[in-house]
Amino acid sequence: MGEKGFYISKPVGVVAIILGVGALATIIALSVVYDQEKSKNNEVSPTNGGTTSNPITTPTPSNEPWDKYRLPTSLVPDQYHVTLWPRLTRNETTGLYIFTGKSTVEFVCAEETDLILIHSNKLNYTTLENGHSARLTSAGGGVAAPSIKHSWLKIETQYLVIQLDGKLVKDQRYHLYTEFTGELADDLGGFYRSEYTENGVDKVVATTQMQPTDARKAFPCFDEPAMKAVFYITLIHQHGTIALSNGMENSKSFPIMEGQNVLVTAFAPTKKMSTYLLAFIVSDFGFVSEITEGLLIRIYARKNAIAANQGEYALNVTGPILKFFEDYYNASYPLPKSDQIALPDFNAGAMENWGLITYRETALLYDTEFSSNSNKERIASIISHELAHMWFGNLVTLRWWNDLWLNEGFASYVEYLGADYAEPSWNVKDLIVLSDVHRVFAVDALASSHPLSSNVDDIQKPAQISELFDAISYSKGASVLRMLSDFLTEDVFKKGLSTYLNKFAYGNTVYTDLWDHLQEAAVANSVALPGTVHTIMNRWVLQMGFPVVTIDTTTGAIHQKHFLLDPESNVTVPSEFNYEWIVPIRWMKTGNPQAQKWLVKKTDTFVDMKTSGADWVLANLNVSGYYRVNYDQGNWDKLLDVLNNSHQVRHKLCDMIIIRTKIIKTVLALDTTKYLSKDMEYMPWESALDNLDYFSLMFDRSEVYGPMQAYLKKQVTPVFNYYKEITGNWTKVPDGHMEQYNQVNAISLACRTGMEECQTLIKTWFSAWMSNPETNPIHPNLRSTVYCNAIAAGGDKEWDFAWKQFKNAAIAIEADKLRSALACTKQPWLLNRYLEYTLDPNMIRKQDATSTIVYIAQNVVGQSLAWDFVRARWSYIFTQYGGGSFSFSNLVNGVTERFSTEFELQQLKQFKADNAEVGFGSGTLAVEQSIERTIANIKWISENEKEILDWFTAEAKP
Ligand code: BES
Ligand code: ZN
After folding, report:
1. d(CA 528, CA 311)
2. Per the record, where are the segments of Low complexity compositional bias (predicted)?
């Protein structure tokens, strides 16, 4: 290992001498970035502040503590005092934005050691008076601390490594002090910058995104969720700006530093918390606030957004949602304030930093003039999701990332409960079936799926952690917890939760700790179960996939089978439970709910499910269980009959439309769409459309497309007319939330299937807007679909107009509608030009790049263009946009969604091989899933195309 201190690589060192010492700090920051790019996989040998660099040592596959991604258990942090100074102006010489910082961490030595490992990434350390990049002292008397022998940065595992001359003493406390510089880059991770223009002035915000492993990019820290500590944060910032962090701003002073008049804001110490939940923000934002039952609630955003009252809705729902969760958890909100802030650049949708939740603007800001009911619903649910984390995740935190599914799955389930409390008239609780259960069925039905639970040892590197933020963790997690709450009853579920949160407050857990508490609550309340919470839930958590339960109502025989999209696909991973589940079955007979049953083995017979005469059975009511149901043909026929004739039960049946699978014949499934022309309700339509979307993807380049469009046009026409009538020829908005949604479905499908009246309507609206850009006559609910269809029907004039509106939009929610609609054009040259824009941050913000490429791929004309584009630029996209969250797996899945030919499969495999070196990061699994999905699609088409073509052709006839 090399020398102590920080390092400067040779070329940069030489430049530093030429430019003089003044520029040194920023040059160093540059060198950090430079070296880390250069040596992604190599060890960098630090030098002692000199101008030469040691030769790069080849990485020996050694097994030193610093080669491991997990921290040793020898040191336990207790508190940090961190001062950070982000510079919101570009350094003239280097052209970089930077921040500087000082940090003292107080830790306890739990096991004697002569090694300090602390996470640090892309930070550059100042050499202190002792000649090292850190100073170690003993805290609160005791024996003097040993001196530092060597210190260096271990790039691959992201550590500052400090070797000591002697041992740290067990149970003694120490202070480790460092001074450092980092780049305030526009990379959406760690301490980063966000930029926007307001009233002609360019502005910069310094903000953070730590989860999962980027706190170490802001200051050296023990960056694991179980290493909880108390944080004393201080921010130095310019006059005219405000500083925010997890704690309340405590004191302000106005010193002169480095010749500048600055503001110093010190924050109240945090509670004991994990590093990934920290946040620091410097901005010139405005805010709105209220005090509800003694709690300060504030919503921050760009001044113009606050002036336009765009923070009001968030402010209005936060109080009620917090109150809901206080009651749900039976625990009061743990902090003295709740801040939420909307940022112009933000990678995920929102982040649950404790006491200072960050959002992208579209997820927090609401404007009556611009936002649709769908935008409003998203805001309510996302706020609810993040507030749910304030207890579940923040107060009590999973010990390691392998249990991430419980954290995210839980919040993804209860977000519906909180949003429902805030907006009871919307009935959002029903939507989980479509948005989570059905959505994740598609992924979890692949042989390349994976269990909810991962082994601790399999999740080590940051990329492995990032990969866990997928549909399985979120949507399957939400689905199985909903099922659990349902069979325990909500009351018992809440009781168990409450004791769990109480017991582990400010601590860490593993997922079985929650099972323990739920089990206790189940016993205390005499809930009859066919096993313990552990034994039942193990089946759902430890094995991938889900069962299809088949009920033969002629005999009452029932059996379960692992449901696979392609039944011939090979499940290579064995399961200790043989892919059998313990299945709770809520059911009804001919409209009458029956007592819940449990299927605990592969096959069984439930005599009361045997029917005679006109009686029928419907199982898995409300899709409260995470499984599919199939019946004998006779029962299907009766159910179809009910669908066609009885309104009341119809919405309970939306799981019937299981078109893509072999469990029922495709045409039987298609038969279930025949009644749609008589149905005006959202749930059945949305469910059908979700499934029919798959047909569009598979067939929009084939001969099936024409007859299919004709059939759908026929089905949607009465619905279109219905909405035209109840809205007084499109002059009013339908009353209910769901009706508003279905109006959009009606217009969107009618226009998409070529209904002339619809197309004329939207063209008229759009050209009215074009001729008078100041007044947009299109209702916000309808904008996305109107923009898309108008741009699809138009040429570059329409496109350029929409682009201009996109660039000038005063609210991100409007910009987003345009951004997706711009991908609807049928002109290849416009699509290609748009693709080029996606990788230019001046045109499309980095946060939106991958989703824009996916929008383009969703367009049948853009599909192959987007695929070519992604293939050609993979390594650039990967290095520039590869960090963080789900966007990467979304990109891979998105551009390959239509794949259904041998040729496309070959291309995909080639793509995988060609980029093995570069890698796929958090999109790794998505590549496998895409390959498997393509294989399943090829098979499905070859087996069904003919029949489907005939069916649509016959049914399309007037
Ligand atoms: N903790 C996540 C944010 C996150 C995601 C951080 C991925 C790092 C990587 C947050 O609680 C979350 O889940 N946000 C969701 C919104 C939610 C409503 C599903 C998001 O960002 O989309
Ligand atoms: Zn979450």
Report:
1. 47
2. 46-63
